[in-house]
Amino acid sequence: MDHSRYQLNKELAQMLKGGVIMDVTSPEQAKIAEAAGACAVMALERIPADIRKAGGVSRMSDPHLIKAIQQAVSIPVMAKVRIGHFVEAQILEALEIDYIDESEVLSPADDLYHIDKTRFHVPFVCGAKNLSEALRRISEGAAMIRTKGEPGTGDIIQAVRHMRLIQSEIRRILSLEDDEVYEAAKQLQVSLAMLQELRLHKRLSVVNFAAGGIATPADAALMMQLGAEGVFVGSGIFKSADPEKRAQAIVKAVANFDNSSMLAQLSENLGEAMVGINEAEIELLMAQRGE
Amino acid sequence: MHIAILALQGAFLEHQQMVRKLGATTHLIRNPRDLALPFDGLILPGGESTSMGKMLHDFSMIEPLKSLIQSGTPVFGTCAGLVLLAKNGSNNGFSALETMDIHAKRNAYGRQLGSFYADIDIDNIGVFPGIFIRAPYIESVGQHVKVLASHHDKIVMAQDGNQLATSFHPELTDDVRIHQYFLSICDIK
Q1: Which residues are CB-contacts of A175 (< 8 A; sequence separation ≥ 6)?
Q2: Radius of gyration of chain B (CA)
Q3: What confidence category does residue A62 fall into, taking pLDDT thresholds of 50, 70 and 90?
């Protein structure tokens, strides 16, 4: 049986399903996340809300920090590189990172090309706000997709919009007649083969998580009910009043996303959520990076 | 035949598809209430053992599951599921059900770059496609535990009476033989 590295990388994402991946900025936070039941952590120097506040150029984290976080926990450790910055990705691969997030949260390094992810042994997750972006990232070698949402805002509207759009575009592709698929491929700027595969399996060929703006257990459960296979929570946890409690509540909310009485319990007494910025107040739309 | 599948986190839907393909009915277990429905066998899927272990503790599901397994309900754990069944894993002092007389080493092959595919020769089943994702292996087994497969001298599949465990992921393949074997254990009980 031919079983490629890419296949193994997609399979790691399958193991993350139904789980919560949390942004952490220190080994201490990583331990809190692991103890709360996170299925993986994203090692970052600054969480998106602070990146937004600080402005300037945002880059891959210091390898020293990433290594310290790898030492601190036994769950998978992910880290972000700038869109198109394949040397940052080479560095993370040398650190034996478990997953690279080629992320619009950092300042893009290339406004034309994403990283050719087929050249790497470690897996990549990429953001998408519609089906065209998702399929093009997969064709570049992404082993996992997440919605872009709008990171660092605590506002769920964009993640909802992106997840709904991706799902409804998939439903539309499945509804086409065979002879209409050629035109759809042209419109979506993807290969015919990719659309045929989508129609065969009736879903994306990789796992699809929600990300960008999730701040409460209800937000996480909303994304799961909309069809996300798991969630990333960035600023929402460590920007809140009681990160430990909120982290645990979000993990349990994802596991019991369709159980409203459980969700009611989990939402109680979590302390203040991150303040957030609503959509109309956002000055920088990170989701527009790397289309 | 009715199989319950622990569905707190991880690749539980893949197991569900597999046993349905073999004609069994299923339900998912997400909280203690789901344990009230009777079942002939239980599957603990792959995923993150720390995440599942944490919720098993917090949802007070450790004791009910333990007593079900100890009273003979067949259980099949893959990867993280194996870790949940094992006595103390050697890293982190992690513990969950501890019903199976094996010691597991978590992340025994390292990080994702250490994940691999290998043909595994299994007793009475034959060569099987073994998918190892940040996998554990079994460091040692108790006297009454049958070792069913090894890979480079490390135990990757074992059976302790009604308890079956693999380090690898048969639910990610099209090969139903291990699930079939588990259902045959459920059938006898």
Answers
A1: none
A2: 15
A3: very high
Q: What's the CATH number where B98 sits?
A: 3.40.50.880
- Residue whose C-alpha is closest to residue B84's, from B60, B38, B53, B63: B53
Which residues fall within 8 angstroms of residue B76, CB to CB, at 6 or more apart? Answer: B41, B42, B43, B44, B163, B164, B165, B179, B182
Query: How many other CB atoms sit within 10 Å of the CB of residue A53?
Result: 10
Contacts of A261 in chain B (CB under 8 A): none
Residues whose CB falls within 8 Å of the CB of residue B93, separated by 6 or more in sequence, listed in order:
none
- If pLDDT is split at 50, 70 and 90, which confidence band does A106 have? very high
Yes or no: say if B31 and B56 are a contact pair by the CB < 8 Å rule: no
**Cβ-nearest to B106 among A11, A74, A248:** A74
Distance of alpha carbon A250 from alpha carbon B186, whole angstroms: 35
Query: Alpha carbon of A182 to those of A169, A195, B85: distances in Å?
Result: 15, 9, 50
Our count of domains for chain B comes to 1
8 Å CB contact between B6 and B46: no
Instruction: With a threshold of 0.90, tell me whether the complex ipTM lies above it.
Output: yes
Distances (CA, A) of B39 to A26, B25, B62: 44, 9, 17
Taking an 8 Å cut-off on Cβ atoms, the answer to whether A8 and B116 are in contact is: yes
A147: Cα separation from own chain's centroid: 6
Determine the residue among B95, B113, B175 to mutate to test chain A binding: the one whose Cβ has the most chain A Cβ atoms within 10 Å: B113
Burial A218-250 (b: 16+ CB within 10 A, else e): bbbbbbbebebbbbbbbbbbbbbeebebbbbbb
Of B8, B11, B112, Cβ closest to residue A98: B112
Q: How far is B161 from chain A (nearest CA, A)?
A: 27
- φ/ψ of residue A164, rounded to 5: -60, -40
**Residue with the two structure tokens 């291990």:** B178
Domain that holds residue B184: 2-188
Predicted structure pTM score = 0.95
